[in-house]
Write a structure and sequence with these properties.
Layout lengths: L5 E6 L3 E9 L4 E6 L13 H7 L1 E6 L18 H11 L5 E6 L3 H10 L4 E7 L8 H4 L4 H12 L1 H8 L2 H8 L2 H10 L2 H7 L2 H15 L4 H11 L13 E6 L7 H10 L3 E6 L6 H5 L1 H12 L2
Helix pairs in contact: 5-6, 5-11
Length: about 300
């Protein structure tokens, strides 16, 4: 299957943000924020479902991934301005926003900064504020190590991801898939054997790591320090889904988001993992967001 059409949107400062199109070309606009480490190609997982539901899925590469320009000093709250510029360039007014895993903090940043553009906001297996120790504690040791290195400073993070590990990941991103299959719960292992899921995640990893590890190192630092806004200040309704068996971003993250976001509704999915939930329940999730939006 060939890659989808990709837009390259010019931004101030001689930058570009790249955006892949999935789903129905003339459908209701839905912006997809990919996980970590990944890129816009991850949205292939919802391509067919988007066509079925009449959703025009626009999946954006964050700075330093895919074809989007790396920005050394970028902050979490810089992203909503880029999102607005991309939406304007593509003729999109209000839109549905779906953040998956590491896309969650960026989606909530948009809920904080540009709520008037969001017709509905959904978060699936969302990464919580990992600069808080209580959310790092239940995560697996590689995540704790990575976020801890990101908090301690650039030297430790560069030593971890800029050396041999970074070299391997940048050239063989499929190694991530092998690690996932070894360490994930049964529900995730099942969906990760599906060809379309493996292809989308592999293409997503290639987009994140193909340019090198500079982008993902910066993103880790961004996650591991205060995001520039408080959850209590995201005032619009937020729909959350999280699996009980999520071993990558534990359920404690979804529960904290549900407690601290003023208008949050959380669905806990028994037996679902980090990858199985957005794959197995994509039809229900996307249909609900479409119906909430009423665009």
């Amino acid at each position: 299957m060939p890659p989808p059409p990709t837009h390259s949107i010019a931004l101030p400062g001689n930058r570009v943000v790249t955006c892949g199109e999935y789903g129905a070309p003339d459908g209701v606009p839905l912006l997809y924020f990919h996980g970590f480490p990944s890129s816009q190609a991850e949205a292939e997982i919802i391509d067919e479902t988007g066509r079925e539901l009449g959703l025009r899925v626009l999946s954006l590469d964050r700075p330093g991934t895919g074809g989007s320009t790396f920005v050394p000093e970028r902050r979490m709250l810089d992203w909503p301005r880029d999102v607005t510029a991309v939406a304007d360039a593509l003729g999109v007014g209000r839109f549905i926003l779906l953040g998956v895993s590491g896309g969650c903090p960026y989606a909530l940043a948009c809920g904080h900064e540009i709520p008037e553009r969001l017709a509905a906001l959904g978060i699936v297996c969302g990464l919580g504020p990992v600069y808080r120790p209580e959310l790092r504690a239940p995560m697996r040791w590689p995540a704790r190590l990575s976020f801890g290195a990101a908090q301690r400073g650039g030297f430790w993070l560069d030593a971890l991801y800029g050396g041999p590990l970074g070299w391997v990941l940048a050239r063989r991103p499929e190694a991530i898939m092998l690690l996932l299959l070894v360490a994930c719960p049964p529900a995730d292992k099942e969906v990760l054997r599906e060809r379309i899921v493996r292809r989308a995640l592999r293409r997503g990893a290639l987009g994140a790591l193909g340019p090198g590890t500079r982008g993902i190192r910066h993103e880790l630092r961004t996650y591991a320090h205060p995001w520039g806004y408080e959850l209590r200040d995201v005032r619009l309704p937020v729909r959350l889904w999280h699996g009980t068996d999520d071993a990558t971003v534990p359920l404690a993250h979804g529960e904290l988001l549900a407690r601290e976001l003023p208008q949050a509704e959380l669905t806990v999915a028994p037996g679902e993992g980090h990858f199985s939930l957005p794959v197995r329940q994509r039809l229900q999730i996307l249909r609900e967001l479409r119906d909430r939006a009423r665009l």
